[in-house]
Amino acid sequence: MRRREFLQKSALVIVGTAVSTAPAARAATGGEQWPAPLKTLSPAQARTLLKMARQIYPHPGLDDACYMTTVLDLDSEAAVSPETAKLLSDGIAQLHSSGSGRFDDLSAEQQTAVLVKIQSGSFFQKVRSVEVVSLYNNHEVWKRFDYRGASYPFGGYIHHGFNDLNWLPDPPDAASPKG
Amino acid sequence: MAHLDLNDDSAVVIVGSGAGGGTLANSLCQHGLKVVLLEAGQRQSPATFHNDEWRAFNQLAWLDKRTTSGSWRVARDFPNLPAWTCKTVGGTTVHWAGASLRFADYEFKTKTYYSKISGANLLDWPLALKELEPYYSKAENRMGVTRTNDIAGLPGNNNFKVMYYGATRAGYKTVHTGRMAINPQPRDGRGGCMQLGFCFQGCKSGAKWSTLYTEIPRAEATGRLDLRTGAMALQVVHDRQGRASAVLYADAAGRHHLQKARIVCLAGNSIETPRLLLNSASSMFRHGLANSSGQVGRNYMRHTTGSVYAIFKKPVHMYRGTVMAGIILDEARLDSGRGFVGGFEMETISLGLPFMASFLNPGAWGRDYTRRLEQYPNMAGMWIVGEDMPQESNRVTLNTGVKDQFGLPVPNVHCDDHPNDVAMRNYAYKRGAAVYKAAGAVETIEVPPYPSTHNLGTCRMSEKPGDGVCNKWGQSHDIKNLFISDGSQFTTSGGENPTLTIVALALRQGDYIASQCAQRNL
After folding, report:
1. Where are the domains of chain A?
2. Which residues of chain B neighbour A168 with C-beta distances below 8 Å?
3. Which end of chain B is more exposed for a tag (fewer CB within 10 A), N or C?
4. What's the pLDDT at A33?
């Protein structure tokens, strides 16, 4: 994807988020607009998890909205599981005490160094395993990765580019019949 | 559809409705036998499938708890998901990619053809290719396999274009869009391929063969099939003479039922089939049913697998169209000069973005990883599938410390790669990378095996009762009215995707059971 196209699509996501999330909760500390109210996490905790999520699967072109789903998924799980709530709360405290200052205020490199230290622990693994599903299952993220997903609704890729690659010669009919 | 009484002891009870069980059920019904088909999962249809990886996974996959051990990387990456199989009517034929290849003759005789391999429990099948050939032909016809029965090959997609160009430049000669049980055009009541790109998630066009919408409805149409969904087999019960007499199962609400049986056939895939035999231990059979050899659960095979993904300068969009869109067959040959015995195939594969993020390097994170993921549109991919060595210590056992929702011990799957498996995988990784480099790849990525889709062995066929669990008909050596009807029967794994062979064996077993019943031997 071209850089400009990438940026244009980023802008669209931000507009889309603002329009589609009616009464967004505005966090007191960070000022993030969460697309849904937080159930268990404090705004400050949620903000730290957002920073963490950005460092685990960093994509400079994706805006925070794409990573917020992960935090909200964790928050929802914490709302029904005291065990998860404690895991997150303790883990966030550990993030703040493992570096040279509050995790949120560290540079990206320093944040990564903190995460490397705790990467085999259950807190990191919980966040990572939730994030690898929620981030890459996000349809806005799909657009940035040029992944179109379901094709049945428009009749399959058979008439939508399944064989549109044109920078290599086509195989002979014997190997790949025209169909 | 028939309704058979729980006390009807004329019923053949089949556990599992996939390639083995679903096909066998239809064969027996066509022969005039009455069948109770127990399926642990629910019934879906092309209309209810999802073109969405995680949603489909949660709808179709076998997610009951399992544990793992051994040095295979799956035990580290997916400790509770050793296998990616299905719990739904149609079993893993809902999920499979459709590759339908016959075994080569030598693959039935590995002990004869391969020199002694230390640590490998090699054995010749009590069955030769010649005996199976008529059933391979029948299977190809009913499944509608391309490049057989005058059915054309499928048109190749972008992923195949890259494979073909690279493979032929790298010197490979036999490269085409494969022998696939996917209709290029509508045939035999099934639709034509729409190149949906979601073969693994259940084919919404019905172009891909699955017992769900072929064998099972045809068996139902005979009026002799009683399909019970949400029915989890818990125990095979035997009588005082040591003959299988009933199957105890739990329904979806957890209530137990005992279905009497004339014959019991197990087709729950190579993890659940031995588990059921082991969970059926009794005072007469202390080590589980059909286990006088001690081989139940042993010789678990999963094929030597791995994937190679390659990044190109220009877009590929590999996810569009059939997942297994083409194959390189040159490496499937008897040739130990490559540093290992056995052959392998290279077949295109693609994953959608959600699964690619989870599988490209399980557990990886950070910018180096995401930089590669950002190349997703420019990726092409292939899957390696080759023969792995049977080892006695690779086995399914009962983990008595962990219970499932029915209170039964869960299966533990132990697996260590044999040095032959490692040598083959490393060679295949290099060959796969060579293919893509010949097509201009800027980077190639070796991807470790996914949770196993090919689960084989564990109740293997053998000439002598001491070497295995069942004979050349899948009939257990110990209990003559107890059959193994799935990939568990495989004596060795071959290098080919196993479904066609499972179907051929099921058709052959169906004829055998029917003739034995007619002769009153069963």
Report:
1. 1-37, 38-148
2. 161-162, 165, 439
3. N
4. 87
